[in-house]
Amino acid sequence: MSATPAHLEQLLHQRVDACFVQAEARLGRTFARPRIHCNMRGRAAGSARLQTWELRFNPTLYQANQQAFLDEVVPHEVAHLLVYALWGEGRGKARVLPHGQQWQSMMRELFGLEPRTTHSFDLTVLAQRTVPYRCHCQQHQLSVRRHNKVVRGEARYHCRRCKQPLERELQEPVPAE
Ligand SMILES: [Zn+2]
Ligand SMILES: [Zn+2]
């Protein structure tokens, strides 16, 4: 799992808040802020848990597509929460579809975005396997190539910030090179 650098995590929180401020101004009411987790894995960029009012984001895709992620994925997921707050799950035949009319109008009218449900992110980052290492100040991701050099005793890497040698963080099965 790749740790999200603190400043990126902060930008994500700020963007979520900005979406809510925008929504509140337009809709004339306030909303509780959701809990935000940046721990999603796999190919999905984000998800909204409606009942528990939480947003989850994929740190790997975020780091590889920062601007697009903040511009599109965050409002996309916030719009899901807003639809739930305003319409619930719908009643009877008037079910609220996840990317239905209400969600689309949130995207268009509130955020001025095309209501797209797919993104054109660089997914190749998901295939790049890395191995977590640690120094005294932060987590590092070493490529499998570098990791195998460490294992074979051919190289030792140091943190540029604290100058400490990197130590293996977890005992996971070693990915093949
Ligand atoms: Zn969605
Ligand atoms: Zn360090």
UniProtKB/TrEMBL annotation:
GO molecular function annotation: metallopeptidase activity
Cofactor: record remark: Binds 1 zinc ion.
Transport listed as a keyword: no
Pfam families with a match to the protein in the record: SprT-like, Zn_ribbon_SprT
CC cofactor: Zn(2+)
Keywords: Cytoplasm, Hydrolase, Metal-binding, Metalloprotease, Protease, Zinc
Sequence ranges assigned to domain SprT-like in this UniProt record: 14-169
Hydrolase is among the record's keywords: yes
Active site: 77
Localization: Cytoplasm
Annotated binding of Zn(2+), by residue: 76, 80
NCBIfam families assigned: PRK04860.1 (NF003421)
UniProt family annotation: Belongs to the SprT family.
Protein name listed in UniProt: Protein SprT
Protein source organism: Aeromonas piscicola
